Amino acid sequence: MAYRMVQVGTGGFGAAWCRSFLPPNVKEGLIEVVAAVDMKEEAHVHAVEGLGLSASQCYTSLEKALDENPADFLTVVVPPAHHEAVVDAALAHDLHILSEKPIADTLATACRIVDKVARSGKKMGITMSHRYDQDKTSLREQIRSGRWGPLDYLVAKYLCNNRRFGSWGKFRHEIPDPLMIEAGVHYFDLLADMAGAKCDTVYAQTWNPPWGEFAGDSQALVTMHYDNGTRAFFEGAKTNAWGLNCACQEYLRAECEGGTLILDHRKLGVFPYDPDLPSGDGGERQPEPLSLLEQPKWGHTWLIEEFVHWLDGGEPMETKVEDNLESLAIVFAAIESSRTGEPVKVQEFLGSASR
Question: Which of 38, 60, 174, 244 is the most buried (most CB within 10 A)?
Answer without folding.
Answer: 38
